[in-house]
Each structure stands twice: as structure tokens, then as C-alpha cells.
TrEMBL record:
This is Netrin G1. Residues 46-296 form the Laminin N-terminal domain. Residues 362-397 form the EGF-like domain. It holds the Pfam family Laminin_N. Residues 1-28 form the signal peptide. GO terms for biological process: animal organ morphogenesis; axonogenesis; tissue development. PROSITE patterns: EGF_1 (PS00022), EGF_3 (PS50026), LAMININ_NTER (PS51117). It comes from Cavia porcellus. It comes from the Eukaryota. Keywords: Disulfide bond, EGF-like domain, Glycoprotein, Laminin EGF-like domain, Repeat, Signal. Disulfide bonds join C387-C396. The gene is NTNG1.
Length: 438
């Protein structure tokens, strides 16, 4: 009996363990910026590092094509299906919705068949290069959390560069080169992400892995984010503490996964042969059905919410920080230099909250939290206490009869204990000491 029960429990544990295997054993979600806890001094805020959830960032981007008139359909033209020179009865016409292929079709829902896609004009001006820049802009710093995936409806290009910007498109750096022949196209030896390591993870490589023309099931191009994470967190991303530690301490690594803009440079369409077939130029073009970019707003671990309002992403900053990326301390909270939050220690991290400036403490004469008006007085615009008729003083702490020397048993008013405004202010300031200790 006991043996069968033991075996049942063991089987259940094995089942539960196998289900949990793909998930990290220790994972900091960082989805809360602060919680209230009870201490010897009473209820206080406990602050922790926090960040928005990872999401589909293509919902918030703006796309720009260069040249701007490169999209097919104006004027209408015919093209060959998947590069087949004998199937050239397909038509692109911008004035007919069923035949139009505008840029927004790169980001619509892809659950239908046939797929919707953006398409360029054909290579009718050969031998002039057919080149297109597709720029994706967020007007906000974002952190990439998953692979960038580009799905082509045409053959994958023979030559392409994925670029990134960290300054809203003012300057650009290559992320990765793609070519059927890296040495010929970019004077680089071909590599894949598998050839990299922790020490070379930031190396910019040229890969031939995704440039195989019209081969069946060869529509997708990746930029591998998770494979690069895996150099620090392990193949199943279980050791996130190691990755977080590297992101905390290595700015170049953190910046590598951070962008404000991405640019896809299509330099040469899929030819499939050594020579271009000049008799059938309608078979050469670019067509993209889907682009996936997952990430989160960069809020420097000072916010869990990033709102999209008036076509703009903005962090809702916590920890007394402010700015588009929560990149500075709020006014009157500059008691120590601003610092980003830290992922460590797992699982709550360190908030590095901005604290009040010394000069800002006590600038209000009164308030409803620390500098209370006494004896029923009310605080007016934080500038003065409005006292009942019988009281006076900065905090309504004195009886009026005291000034006239008439307080006593005859007046029916007893003089309150002597407590100067300076002492009251000092007491209020000392009361802030506990919540401000980090």
C-alpha cells in the first residue's frame, strides 16, 4: 500500500517537473515597483526594480520606405509569381484594394490564406540596382526581448543588411549582414550565431543561413536575440540571474539589445542564378508578408507601465523619476544622483529610488502629511495655517490670550505646553527619516 502510494506521488512529481522544465527555475518578473510592508516604524513602502511586460512592438511603430515611390502598383504592373518566368500574370494595382500591396500589410494579422504582403516595384530598371530601405521607428527607446523575424512572400534577398539606431535615426550601426555569398557581397567570412560565444556575442557577423533564394519553406529571416541571451542564461534561458548580472554590469551588452529604430536595407533581390534574366525582369522584386519585433519600453527599471497616447510611447515613471525613459530624478528629489534600477539581487532587484533634496525638505510652511496645522487649523496652499479664532502662530500652536497675557483660570483657557515652530518643524523632518532610509 505504502509502496503504491509512494509510486503515485513520484509519478505525479515527475509529471509536474516535466511540465515545468521549459521555464526558468529562478525568474525575476519585475512587474511591481513597490509594495507596502510593516516594520517597527509602521507601514512603509518597499521599493523594487520594475519593468513593463514584453509585447508586440509593431503595434506602435511608424514605417518609412526609401525611395518613397518604391511600392508597386502606381502605375499598375504585372509580376511573376515566386520568380517563375512562366507565371507572370499577377498584377499589382494601388488603386484596387484587392490588388494593392501597401507597407502596412507587413504588420497586419497573418492568419488568413493567401497572405497579405507589401511588395516593391519590379526590377524593370536593371542594371540600376533595385534597393529599398524600410525604416521602423518608435520615437522611444525600446529593449528587444525576442528574435526579430522577417517573412518574405518573394524569395529572400541575395543581399540585405539589418541596421539599428540608438539616437532616433541620426546615426546607424549594422546589426547583421545577410548574403548568398558574404565574401563577395560584404568582404566578410560567413558565420552563424552558433559560432559566437560570451566573449564575441557583440560581434557583427555576415550569415549565409537565410539567403537561399527560392528553396521550399525558405521565406523567413531571423535576427537571433534569444540565442545571444543563451550564452549567459543557458540554452533554455534558465539561469536568468547570470544574464541579468551581465546586463547590469556591461553597458555595451545592454545597449546591443536596445534600439530606437530599425532599418532593413534590401540591396539585391533573390536572383537564384549567377546571371540576371534580362528578358524576364518582372520576376525580380521584394515582397514581405510579416515583420515581428517583440520588446518593451526602456524605463530603466523604474516603471511597469508604458502608455501609448497621441501616437507616442511614454513610461509611467515610479521611484520619483521622470522623463521618457525615467532617466532623471524629479524636481525636489535630487538628494543623490539618478541611477537606473538594478536586476539584482533576484528576484526583486534594487530600485535605486530618487530621494528628496535637502533644500526641498521643509520648503512648505504646512501640508496635510507632515507639517500639520494644530488645534483645528487648516493648511492654505501650503503657505500658511488658517487658525480658529482662539489660536495664532505659524501652526496655530499658541492661544491668542497668551499674547495679551490674559490666559488663566479667569479666561477659561489653559495655556498649552510651549513648543516653538522651529521645534515642530524639526520634529516633522525627523519623522521623514525612516521612510527615506534605503
Amino acid at each position: 500500500m505504502y509502496l503504491s502510494r509512494f509510486l503515485s506521488i513520484h509519478a505525479l512529481w515527475v509529471t509536474v517537473s516535466s511540465v515545468m522544465q521549459p521555464y526558468p527555475l529562478v525568474w525575476g518578473h519585475y512587474d511591481v515597483c513597490k509594495t507596502q510592508i510593516y516594520t517597527e516604524e509602521g507601514k512603509v513602502w518597499d521599493y523594487m526594480a520594475c519593468q513593463p511586460e514584453s509585447t508586440d512592438m509593431t503595434k506602435y511603430l511608424k514605417v518609412k520606405l526609401d525611395p518613397p515611390d518604391i511600392t508597386c502598383g502606381d502605375p499598375p504592373e504585372s509580376f511573376c509569381a515566386m520568380g517563375n518566368p512562366y507565371m507572370c500574370n499577377n498584377e499589382c494595382d494601388a488603386s484596387t484594394p484587392e490588388l494593392a500591396h501597401p507597407p502596412e500589410l507587413m504588420f497586419d494579422f497573418e492568419g488568413r490564406h493567401p497572405s497579405t504582403f507589401w511588395q516593391s516595384a519590379t526590377w524593370k530598371e536593371y542594371p540600376k540596382p533595385l534597393q529599398v530601405n524600410i525604416t521602423l521607428s518608435w520615437s522611444k527607446t525600446i529593449e528587444l526581448t525576442d528574435n526579430i523575424v522577417i517573412t518574405f512572400e518573394s524569395g529572400r534577398p541575395d543581399q540585405m543588411i539589418l541596421e539599428k539606431s540608438l539616437d532616433y535615426g541620426r546615426t546607424w550601426q549594422p546589426y547583421q549582414y545577410y548574403a548568398t555569398d558574404c565574401l563577395d557581397a560584404f568582404h566578410m567570412d560567413p558565420k552563424s550565431v552558433k559560432d559566437l560565444s560570451q566573449h564575441t556575442v557583440l560581434e557583427i557577423i555576415c550569415t549565409e543561413e537565410y539567403s537561399t533564394g527560392y528553396t521550399t519553406n525558405s521565406k523567413i529571416i531571423h535576427f537571433e536575440i534569444k540565442d545571444r541571451f543563451a550564452f549567459f542564461a543557458g540554452p533554455r534561458l534558465r539561469n536568468m540571474a547570470s544574464l541579468y548580472g551581465q546586463l547590469d554590469t556591461t553597458k555595451k551588452l545592454r545597449d546591443f539589445f536596445t534600439v530606437t529604430d530599425l532599418r532593413i536595407r534590401l540591396l539585391r533581390p533573390a536572383v537564384g542564378e549567377i546571371f540576371v534574366d534580362e528578358l524576364h525582369l518582372a520576376r525580380y522584386f521584394y515582397a514581405i508578408s510579416d515583420i515581428k519585433v517583440r520588446g518593451r519600453c526602456k524605463c530603466n527599471l523604474h516603471a511597469t507601465v508604458c502608455v501609448y497616447d497621441n501616437s507616442k510611447l511614454t513610461c509611467e515613471c515610479e521611484h520619483n523619476t521622470t522623463g521618457p525613459d525615467c532617466g532623471k530624478c524629479k524636481k525636489n528629489y535630487q538628494g543623490r544622483p539618478w541611477s537606473p534600477g538594478s536586476y539584482l539581487p533576484i528576484p526583486k532587484g534594487t530600485a535605486n529610488t530618487c530621494i528628496p533634496s535637502i533644500s526641498s525638505i521643509g520648503t512648505n510652511v504646512c501640508d496635510n502629511e507632515l507639517l500639520h496645522c494644530q488645534n483645528g487649523g487648516t493648511c492654505h496652499n501650503n503657505l500658511r495655517c488658517l487658525c480658529p479664532a482662539a489660536y495664532t502662530g505659524i501652526f496655530c500652536e499658541k492661544l491668542r490670550c497668551e499674547e495679551a497675557g490674559s490666559c488663566g483660570s479667569d479666561s477659561g483657557q489653559a495655556a498649552p505646553p510651549q513648543c516653538s515652530p522651529a521645534l515642530l518643524l524639526l520634529t516633522a523632518l525627523l519623522g521623514t527619516a525612516s521612510p527615506l532610509a534605503f
